Amino acid sequence: MRKRRLSLFLNYKLQQSKLSTLMVTCFIAFNLLLVSVIVWLAYQSFSAVTFTEISKARLALLNESTRRGFDFITGVTGTAYSLASNRELSNLLETKGTGRLTQIHQRREVSKILDHTLVVSEGITSVELYTDAFNGVTVTMADRIYPVDTIAGDSWFAALEQADAAWVPLRENESGQSLIGYAQRIFDSRGGTVAYVLIRLSRADIVRRFADMPMVLDGQVLLVDTAGNVVMQMGDDNLEVNSGEGFSSMNGASKLFSSINVSSNLAAGESEPVVDRAWIQEHVEHGEDGFEVVSGKPGGAQLVLYSRPAMLQWRLVQTIPVHTLLSPVRQAGWQVLGIAVLGLLCSAVLAYLFVRRIVRPLRQLIKRMRQLEKGDFNTRVQLSFTQEYAHLAYGFNHMASQLTELMDQVKEESRAKREAQTGLLEAQIKPHFLYNTLDMIHWRALDYEAKDISRMIVQLSKLLRIGLSGGRLFIRVRDELEHARCYVSIQSERLPFSIDYQEQIDPRVRGCYIPKIILQPFIENAVMHGQPKEEKLRIQVDMWEMESIESPPKIIIRIKDNGQGLPEGWKLEETTGIGIRNVHQRIQLYCGTGYGVDICAGELGGVEVTITLPHIETEEQLNLWLGGENE
User: Fold this and answer.
1) Residue 360: phi, psi to the nearest 5?
2) DSSP per residue over 308-355, as a string?
3) CA gyration radius, the chain
4) Phi and psi at residue 621, in whole multiples of 5°?
5) pLDDT tens across 548-589, in order?
6) What b-and-e string marks burial along 475-511, b requiring 16 or more CB atoms within 10 Å of the CB?
7) pLDDT digits (tens, 9 = 90+) for 417-452
8) Which residue in 310, 232, 255 sits closest to 64, CA to CA?
């Protein structure tokens, strides 16, 4: 019920709206939908392509940053190796059998070597030496030489005993900075361990390697070892080192030990990594680089990029919010949308002007139709600039012309009907007096035993009675046939030749209505002008019903004779005979132009007349045809 009311309401509103408003509204709605779909598809496609390209570019930059950022590892290991292979340093560390002053001198020389190494090596926080060679020497000034017992209690020291060198986690120094160290054993000439070189690196030293690449520090950057442990977290305005469970070992003399010993919990308010260790291990185990979008995290979807491993098999993992990457794309999308809306508004204005010009001929046509409704049949519409409107204008003008012609035709038909009715009224003047007079002559003829005269008078009386028929325009077929027989009977008495009159009538049409006195004129023409070559004039009247799918049923009357036929060049339109023309005009006047008379030469000589009439069976049908004029 509600849908029906809505449908009726919409139909009512559509009927009350103007065509120009509907066309402009539909144009704007269609274009708005089209522009929206195109802009949305273009934005999705462009953002997807742009996002992929940006991700690839960021990944390439991350790989370059990894390569350049970890170049210092070569310097650190090289520095440690140079100290371990320094023959002078090895000799200075051999203090067995030397005096106290010599050991002091040797210690000072070793300290100078360490200071010089620290100065010439970039990005190193400190270089320390752990040895028991100078335990018996008391120093008066601080240096970087410590007893082995200082580091003997560290968790990584026992593992270092099984390797020549290793990256080791260190405790915080006095400044509170967490450090990463590289430890290298120094051997004496007999292959024994005489000292340990420890090169310390702070987080600042490592982060400084990426300082010249600001794009890398967008979002959050994680320093990850080969086991997937997060060694260091950079970005988001903090630098943190996470606890891990162990570093993987390296080939050769270098080996990574347990993770950096810092607090396992991040300080309050500091951001946690977007991806955990399990995710990192799953994606970096094959040693390849790549990127992936991770959703369902605080702050929305994140783009996670992981670089190829560096020399230590460490790598960088960077997480960047997707909305940050696509911010320029969104700005471009809004600009494109603004341009599209502006174009839509301009097209709407142009569409309104165009539709207004298109609808103008329709308004002119409506104006002329209203004039036509008021009776101005001389109004006309000018031809428009389009073919469709030209057809409409031509059709309207043709209709107006046809209406003018029909009005004139109706006036002429009305005048003809009035004249015919006047003639009928004049012919009906005192018909009873005429019938009584003929009846008196009939009885007088019988008194004198003039039976032929009596018979002719009876036939004439029937002829006149059927012809007048009380002023009716249509009579039944059987009465019309009786009228024709009376005429033939009268003419047979006066002609020098005999008449063979035959009828073949379809029983279905005997009760139908046809215009009266339509057979007698053609029979009269056959009698008066036929002049048969034989001594007998043959007249054949056939009548039947013709049915058709495309048109209503009709009555066909065919009259044939064996007379002389039609003159050469004879045409019904040019005939001067009153009877034939009268019948044709009366049929078309009462029945329409689709009915009438057709005259042609017969196949075996003579004349063949074909009369086409409507099939009218009842008084109701007759009244519909004549509009009550037959009453």
Assistant:
1) -55, -45
2) PP-TTS-EEEEEEEHHHHTHHHHHHHHHHHHHHHHHHHHHHHHHHHHH
3) 63
4) -65, -40
5) 888 889 999 999 988 888 887 777 777 767 778 888 888 888
6) bbbebbbbbbbbbbbbbbeeeeeebebeeeeeeebee
7) 777 766 655 555 555 556 666 666 766 677 777 767
8) 310
User: Which letter does DSSP use for residue 481 in this model?
Assistant: H
Per-residue pLDDT tens over the stretch 483-508: 888 888 888 877 777 888 999 999 99
DSSP conformation letters of 352-368: HHHHHHHHHHHHHHHHH
Task: Report the alpha-carbon angle 389-392-397, nearest 5.
Answer: 125
CA distance 534 to 500: 12
CB atoms within 10 A of CB 564: 15
Whose tokens are 């003039």? That residue is 450
CA distance 601 to 612: 17
What are the backbone angles phi and psi of residue 131, rounded to the nearest 5°? -155, 155
Calpha distance 308→606 (Å, rounded): 117
pTM: 0.43
Residue type for position 443: W
Which DSSP string do the residues of 12-56 spell out, in sequence order? HHHHHS-HHHHHHHHHHHHHHHHHHHHHHHHHHHHHHHHHHHHHH
CA distance 352 to 28: 10
Contact call for residues 466 and 475 (beta carbons, < 8 A): yes
Euclidean distance between the first and the last CA atom of the chain, given in angstroms as a whole number: 53
Whether residue 471 contacts residue 424, with contact meaning beta carbons closer than 8 Å, is answered with yes
CA–CA separation, 340 and 167 (whole Å): 60
CA 625 – CA 618 distance, rounded (Å): 11
